[in-house]
Amino acid sequence: MKIGFxxxxxxxxxxxxxxxxxTKLTPSDILIHSAHASTYExxxxxxxxxxxxxxxxxxxxxxxxxxxxxxxVATPVLQEIRDxxxxxxxxxxxxxxxxxxxxxxxxxxxxxxxxxxxxxxxVAIGAGMTAVHANEHLTGEAKQQAVGLFDQxxxxxxxxxxxxxxFSALAGSSPAxxxxxxxxLSRAGVKHGLTKAAATKIAAQAVMxxxxxxxxxxxxxxxxxxxxxxxxxxxxxxxxxxxxxxxxTSVVKGxxxxxxxxxxx
Length: 265
Ligand SMILES: NC(=O)C1=CN([C@@H]2O[C@H](COP(=O)(O)OP(=O)(O)OC[C@H]3O[C@@H](n4cnc5c(N)ncnc54)[C@H](OP(=O)(O)O)[C@@H]3O)[C@@H](O)[C@H]2O)C=CC1
Ligand SMILES: O=C(O)[C@@H]1CCC=N1
Fold this sequence. Notes:
Radius of gyration: 21 Å
Bound molecules: NADPH dihydro-nicotinamide-adenine-dinucleotide phosphate, (2S)-3,4-dihydro-2H-pyrrole-2-carboxylic acid
Helix content: 55-70%
Oligomer: single chain
CATH topology of the largest domain: Rossmann fold
CATH class of the largest domain: Alpha Beta
CATH superfamily of the largest domain: NAD(P)-binding Rossmann-like Domain
């Protein structure tokens, strides 16, 4: 199976890196093209994937075409490759935030099997979280194959398209917010005398363990907060100070702004 990527930015590179690490796909199975050779040629040289000269060549020579461009250029790019998207032989996977299946079908072909996805950057290490929704033409083995790509680089969840914006904030953008939280913890460690490297490792390991605890424990997060907060202790003092500075409100406001921006696409 040949997989072609149109757009080779941060997210496409993360998916390709994850696929090469976690699946049986080899660099020769992957084709790429993007707007600037200065982006895709060094990536092809580094990973061994094949750089093509045009978007149309990628679409022509791939069984699965992954649309990984920014939303503002998705329309002209799909118009450019539409003739190559033979509905009997190709699957289109879109990772473009805010681009509906209806719009994808209008632009790429009404009979084309299409999987709309919203992955996150952690697919690069096989720990992604990806929402998927297939159109009516993507069924059976072809659907399993397309969704299976994302199952192999993390977890997937099938969601109604109406929930994609919320998912995008909670899982697509949230890695940035969690990295920000880790960096904030780490900076506080530096303020109190730790090196940045030591503080970052300590903070990241604590966040990773805490996420795993939430997933594996029967308790909800508030129950776990209570277990950490010894009566009269330091944790509850820290929690109250964070809340006084608006911790939960700032997180919810950030998610609201993320959803609003996604809906404006
Ligand atoms: N970043 C993330 O965590 C996530 C991103 N997404 C979605 O993934 C998509 C890509 O985002 P991201 O990787 O962050 O963005 P980037 O800006 O990093 O990548 C966009 C890519 O599109 C390419 N491109 C622009 N114009 C064209 C064109 N005419 N033909 C071919 N390629 C073109 C760019 O080429 P060049 O580099 O050569 O200029 C670049 O490689 C977006 O639609 C976004 O919504 C979804 C989930 C998470
Ligand atoms: O910032 C963005 O628009 C994309 C969508 C989800 C993550 N990154």
